[in-house]
Design brief:
alpha/beta, Peroxisomal Thiolase, Chain A, domain 1, five-stranded mixed sheet, four-stranded mixed sheet, 13 strands, binds acetyl coenzyme *A, 3-oxoacyl-ACP synthase
Amino acid sequence: MRGVKILSTGMCVPKYKLTNEKISTFIDTSDEWIVQRTGIRERRIVTDETTVSLATNAAKEAIKDIDPLEIDLIIVGTVSPDQMMPSTACSVQAEIGATNAIAFDISAACSGFIYASKIAIEAINCGSAKKALVIGAEIFSKVVDWNDRGTCILFGDGSGAVLYGETDENKILAFDVGSDGNLGQTLVLENQPINNLFVKNEYSPSFIKMDGRAVYRFAVNVVPKSITKALEKAQVNIDEIKLFVLHQANERIISSVAKNLGVDINLFFKNLDKYGNTSGASVPIALHEAKGKLKNGDKIVLAGFGGGLTWGSMVAQW
Ligand code: ACO
């Protein structure tokens, strides 16, 4: 039977580190408040980088051992592209010379990487691709209101990439994914308003708006259930999992998920202190940094959750 495995990973973050102390110089907040409520100490924000340049650099690292012509599919999960058209994925395709690939973006916010991975893995499973590159790439520093202390402290910019490939022994064990559009208004990033022959709207810059407590309740409720369902589908006992790599939204969410699942918090990888919440990029960035802890055959759980609202969990073997 045809199977799929993770072949390699890559990441890229902007050079500039924006610390909590620095943010405290221009809005009314403090390092202590931010660390206590979120676990975030600093985040990277772009100076001269773009969504495409971050995604391209992450991709180049992930594909350094293969010929780009071997890539059949490129999917980028992003809600902060440089342009709506061409897609980030098509721009990356051009940058890396993957001329045999088809390339497109998907919009699933902080679950974007898991959603894109599911599509890519199914494409390999059904024989329409042999190698698929999945990238999460975001520049949230352009969509947060830097005068809103409730949101601007949370986010950072960056990109992570994973190359999946066909293999004899399947290492992608199961997924659980879901969406709940009824809760969509708890986390909103508006796009350009309609202005046409019939409808006239004022244009003003749009920023992330969030009901933080509702998002928190959603995450701590849905993520443990989703991980449990994915483990059941994979027929893997939770005790067999060597590492949980969750979307790096908030330390308190990760701790609550660990507690809810009855798992030692030390099995949950965390790097949000360095990068903040990089939305669709956070899971592949975390996986890239976590891989030093993994041995061949280790079972892992990846999980994303966020805007939509959306969520997804994946059980895999390293
Ligand atoms: N510094 C100092 N004070 C602040 C700050 C800040 N940066 N932000 C808010 N406050 C104040 C508020 O003004 C408020 O003051 P008040 O009581 O005088 O009105 C007080 O702190 C409490 O504000 P809340 O917004 O209720 O703060 P809360 O305790 O809910 O913490 C947080 C906010 C950290 C965002 C929390 O709601 C949370 O963890 N939410 C989870 C959602 C999340 O992480 N979203 C990330 C994006 S979504 C995703 O990736 C899935």
